[in-house]
Specification:
The complex is a heterodimer of chains A (365) and B (245). Chain A is α/β, with parallel strands linked by helices. Chain A contains 14 helices and four strands. In chain B, strand 1 and strand 2 form a beta hairpin. Chain B is globular, with a radius of gyration of 18 Å. The chains are: A alpha/beta (365), B alpha/beta (245). The interface between A and B is medium-sized, with 24 and 29 residues.
Chain lengths: 365, 245
């Protein structure tokens, strides 16, 4: 025990002596939350809309007023003819144009139904899709109160759990999955490989210390750091981004702990395979960082990816963790909805811990 | 005198390559045993086996009375280890390094305090106890590393090229520390490639291509090979080597 304690004290001293690293590790969640929460937002706020209508009658005016009243939309003016739509987009005067085909508001129109067209600038397809969805929502709401009724407007788009399409909802679980993986796996592997590189590992191995103590001591500070980061992210998202934790905080923490252990095991495994800090970092980045960002549904919805990539994504732990966090934290689903995720994470942990301990022992032979 | 290291046809093979080829020798308690050889001769591999870091593929050896293959954990409790390349944590203070190693070897807090202070006074670095090790000159670092390697009073201390890169005066002081340790009954097993240092050893062995090709006191070796210095003995032996540098 004394041995383990000496080693743990040493690890904490070494890591806290490195002021820059510690500042980066503790500051990272704050910066990430600020970046994703306020700067890199996929949510659209200022949509300029124009209207092309054959007649500016009462219904048209009412609709324009209605849309303009919405905080997301700003009315920029009426267009005279169809070819002006193209001009407005090219000059970036408008992001979306609402076109009235028939004479809305007239008696004969209501019997035939209303023909409206939403034209969006799809140079950014994600934005265009969101804009048209917003507009659809407003139109539907408007017509449901007229004698045409909501039935006159058909739309199959439904937005669940994130009715305001707040992108922040989506990325908080993503950041949690990414940062915990990064700190536990990447930093642990680098720290262990550093001792191998400098040679101090040899010294520890020649001492009566049990190798498992060396490893546990290495993991201790990163385990602590990831708990600090976990709390920071939750506090920031609840109080700064105002994303409530709908589900059980207890189960959210349990899943996070499983994930952290898995990440530590991955870090240990990488450290047993790699022999330099640089290679350990590159391997961590390539196998952990990028797949987690791109294949976990953190930024881009996984459902949009090709089927083959959806299968590939299954081997990355981040995908399962992020999905579980999303279900519990944002959708507030009870535990049995995330059993698959939990089981996958547990199985992955068992495999990784067995593999890395075996590999670590083997290296000593 | 008691034999503290007994190697009997100790062998290590990596695939078809025999790094250490049936070496046999004994080291007596309190002796300074020089373990010499060119790079690639198998010195490091042999030493790693004796320290319990690597398992032999043939033959056997005992260190401090324990079998290195079956009781490597026991062996580790009775040895100290120091190397020129890596010895201390550069980002820890002098006293923190002492505390770490003493703690790893299970010394009590009062022992750590007492031995640590005695050690720092002996090396005249008590005033530097709060200095990071990386800020110390190389000669001081090596003396500190050696003193820490024997803080738990092991039976044997293994020194892997301990004096590389330091000036003659610092080397001289370093060897004084080794002599002091052996007076306290600690056996020193030293590898070096400074042939003048070989003269400080009680006995030396010379490894060529995985085999021990000469073993004896420095005087005996010089007489046997009809040479003026250990360096000359070494060059005579190394001429027949198959493995390059």
């Amino acid at each position: 025990m004394k041995t383990l304690l000496s080693l743990i004290i040493k690890e904490f001293k070494l890591i806290f002596r490195d002021k820059w690293t510690i500042m980066i590790l503790i500051g990272m969640p704050i910066v990430e939350i600020a970046l994703f929460g306020f700067a890199i937002t996929t949510e659209i706020r200022n949509i300029n809309f124009a209207v092309l209508a054959p007649q500016h009658n009462e219904t048209v005016r009412q609709l324009v007023e209605r849309i303009d009243a919405n905080t997301y939309f700003t009315f920029v003016g009426y267009l005279d003819q169809t070819k002006d739509i193209d001009k407005a987009f090219r000059k970036e005067k408008a992001d979306v144009v609402l076109t009235f085909k028939s004479n809305v508001g007239k008696q004969e129109a209501s019997s035939k139904g209303v023909q409206l067209q939403i034209v969006t600038d799809a140079s950014n397809p994600n934005t265009a899709k969101t804009e048209s969805m917003y507009l659809m929502g407003i139109l539907k709401d408007y017509f449901s109160k007229t004698d045409i009724g909501a039935a006159g407007v058909t739309s199959s788009v439904r937005i669940l759990y994130n009715p305001q399409l707040k992108s922040t909802y989506n990325f908080v679980p993503g950041i949690m999955g990414l940062l915990l993986l990064l700190i536990c796996a990447m930093m642990t592997s680098i720290a262990i490989v550093r001792e191998k590189e400098v040679g101090t590992m040899e010294l520890l191995l020649v001492s009566p210390t049990r190798p498992i103590f060396v490893i546990l001591a290495k993991m201790a500070p990163y385990l602590t750091l990831s708990i600090i980061n976990y709390i920071t992210i939750l506090v920031l998202s609840v109080f700064v981004l105002q994303i409530p934790i709908v589900g059980s905080l207890f189960w959210l923490s349990v899943i996070s702990i499983i994930y952290v252990f898995l990440a530590l095991a991955i870090g240990l495994f990488i450290s047993t395979v790699m022999s330099t800090q640089v290679s350990a970092m590159i391997v961590s980045m390539a196998t952990l960082l990028f797949p987690t960002i791109l294949l976990s549904g953190m930024i881009y919805p996984l459902e949009n990816a090709p089927v083959i990539l959806q299968y590939v994504s299954c081997i990355f732990p981040g995908r399962w963790y992020i999905s579980a966090v999303r279900k519990i934290m944002i959708e507030g689903l009870p535990l049995h909805y995330v059993l698959t995720e939990i089981n996958v994470l547990i199985i992955m942990s068992v495999i990784m811990i067995t593999l890395s301990l075996k590999k670590f022992k083997h290296r000593l032979e | 005198m008691e034999e503290i290291i007994i190697a009997d046809k100790l062998t290590k093979q990596f695939g078809s390559f025999t790094a250490v080829d049936h070496i046999s020798f004994t080291v007596k308690r309190g002796e300074i045993f020089g373990f010499l050889g060119a790079n690639g001769a198998g010195k490091t591999t042999a030493m790693r086996m004796l320290c319990g870091l690597s398992k032999p593929t043939g033959g056997k050896a005992s260190v401090a009375g324990f079998d290195i293959a079956r009781q490597s954990e026991k062996v580790k409790q009775h040895i100290g280890y120091m190397s020129q390349k890596f010895s201390l944590y550069e980002d820890l203070k002098v006293k923190e390094n002492i505390r770490l190693y003493a703690g790893i070897y299970g010394l009590s807090d009062s022992q750590i305090k007492e031995k640590g202070e005695r050690l720092m006074h002996r090396l005249n670095i008590y005033d530097e106890r709060d200095t990071l090790v990386k800020q110390l000159p190389l000669g001081w670092k090596q003396k500190l590393a050696f003193s820490i390697a024997i803080i738990h009073t092991p039976d044997i201390v293994f020194l892997d090229e301990p004096t590389g890169g330091v000036d003659p005066l610092a080397r001289r002081q370093f060897w004084e520390l080794i002599y002091e340790a052996t007076e306290r009954g600690i056996t020193a097993f030293v590898t070096t490639h400074y042939m003048d240092e070989a003269g400080y050893c009680n006995r030396i062995s010379m490894m060529v291509d995985g085999k021990i090709s000469a073993l004896g006191t420095p005087k005996e070796l010089k007489e046997k090979f009809n040479a003026n210095s250990i360096d000359e003995v070494f060059r005579t032996l190394a001429r027949g080597a198959q493995r390059g540098e």
